[in-house]
Amino acid sequence: MGRMRENPRYNVISMRISDEEREHLENIMEKTHKSISDIMREAMDHFAATYEQVDLQHKAA
């Protein structure tokens, strides 16, 4: 049996990307030594932070 994780991840999301997007992603993987999942998690965090800033700017206006 596998080891127990502190924060297990049970949800799987898949998406279709072009060959060009795949090459770009592979380049990022090589440069950062991170998995696709880690890169996508960072991208979601970045998007969420950017979206929150834009949302706050719209509310302030």
User: How far apart are the termini?
Assistant: 55 Å
- How would you state the average pLDDT, rounded? 89
- The helix-strand sequence is HH
Query: Pairing-aware structural class of the strands and helices?
Result: mainly alpha
Strand content: under 5%
Low-confidence stretches: none
Q: Count of DSSP E strands?
A: 0
**What can be said about the biggest beta sheet?**
none
Please state the CA-atom Rg, rounded to the nearest Å.
16 Å
Please, how many helices? 2
Helix content: 55-70%
Shape: extended
What are the main properties of this structure?
0% strand; 2 helices; mainly alpha; 61 residues
Task: Explain what you see.
- Helices cover 64% and strands 0% of the residues.
- The protein contains 2 helices and no strands.
- It is an all-alpha fold and 61 residues long.
- It has a domain at 35-61.
- The protein has helices spanning 19-32, 36-60.
Give the SSE map.
Layout: H1 19-32, H2 36-60
Question: What's the gist of this structure?
Answer:
Helices cover 64% and strands 0% of the residues. The chain is mostly helical and 61 residues long.
